[in-house]
Amino acid sequence: MAIQEISISELNTGNFINDQVASIKAQVGNEVAVNALSGGVDSAVVTMLGHKALGDKLKTYFVENGLMREGEAQQIVKWFADLGVKVEIIDAKKKFFAGLKGITDPEEKREKGITQVFYKDVFAELVKKSGAKVLLQGTNYTDVEETAAGVKRQHNVFEQIGIDPQKAFGYKVVEPILQLRKPAVRAVARAVGLPKEISDRPPFPGPALAARVIGEATPDRIETVRKATKVVEDELAGCGAFQYLAILHEDMVTGIRNHAREFGKQIEVRCWDSQDAVTANPTELPFSTLRRIADRIVEEVPGVVSVTYNIATKPPSCIEAV
Ligand code: XMP
Asked: Which amino acid residue places its CA nearest to atom 6 of ligand 1?
């Protein structure tokens, strides 16, 4: 891989910020640029670097794809308003669910259902609408590494696998944190003035809850995993793990509720200890915590009769299920 990693021990955050601000200015010139803020630490850092470099010439959008967690859009707009950054919400729910319709294969879901809709459809329109020539995005070193190695098609990797975004989508992509892994991104986040709620946020994948639904990501199935995610995040916030999540399985299982048979859904809970997502171990959560999560999920998420906890390591597991 041609990109040179800057490890956390080599990173000087002040120099990094100055270099990237200068580089963004040089690459964007007098043009307008857009960026999509998902609320994760990667895109949040890029938003701050972009605003330092470009001020009002950077238009920041939150794409409401219908696949985000409960209350996410409002939370992000508020956090960034407090930082003086205006974020416009773009409602793209219909486009994403149309793109995901009928898709069950994981890689097809990422490529056709998410990547193509994001870049060809939603961003292309935003770029056109705002008169921008450049998209700033928060691809990091691990995204590229895993995609280039053919492990998993991260939704935001192009040039490194031979796709020219200018030709494919009609705009240039600038990626200021390409040389950093997560711990280094978090260090830059703190240095660039982001609050702890953002700099320490557990990662969340670009394909959002669609990466946590095995099989077709319909609005109903996304709603199921969204509700389960809320329970897992409520119960595990502050537990110190790298990432915690809920997954909706495709197989149904027989359960019993109120003395009646219920052929219901299965949720898998995952909680990971990891430094950089490259390898990960399941967190040894107290059994009482797991039981509380299970009790709440079967109570609060309609139709769920089974809750499991993943105890395999990455590799061979992955952090997400799709
Ligand atoms: P995996 O599932 O590959 O996840 O073990 C490693 C880390 O990357 C996140 N992830 C993604 N992030 N686009 C992203 O921006 C993606 O397509 C994607 N897939 C996984 C995942 O949440 C974990 O932190």
From this structure: 277
Within-domain flag for 294: yes
- Closest protein CA for atom 9 of ligand 1: 205
In a domain, 8, yes or no: no
Query: Which CATH number characterizes residue 21's domain?
Result: 3.40.50.620
Q: Are 45 and 138 in contact (CB under 8 A)?
A: yes
| pLDDT score recorded for residue 1 | 57
Reported pTM: 0.89
Q: Which domain holds residue 185?
A: 13-199
- Which residues' Cβ are closer than 6 Å to ligand 1? 110, 143, 146, 152, 154-156, 203, 205-207, 211, 243, 277, 314, 318-320
Q: Give pLDDT, residue 21.
A: 98
Query: Which two three-digit tokens encode residue 157?
Result: 């990797």
| Nearest atom of ligand 1 to the alpha carbon of 151 | 3
Q: pLDDT tens digit string along 197-218?
A: 999 999 898 899 999 999 999 9
Query: Residue 17 forms beta bridges with which residues?
Result: none
Q: Comparing C-alpha atoms, which of 247, 257, 256, 261 is closest to residue 307?
A: 247
CA of 256 relative to ligand 1 center, distance in Å: 35
Query: Atom of ligand 1 at shortest distance to CA of 139?
Result: 15
Residue whose CA lies nearest to ligand 1 atom number 19: 205
User: Which residues make Cβ contacts (< 8 Å) with residue 301, sequence separation at least 6?
Assistant: 224, 227, 228, 231, 265, 267
For the chain, the average pLDDT equals 94
CA distance 156 to 142: 11
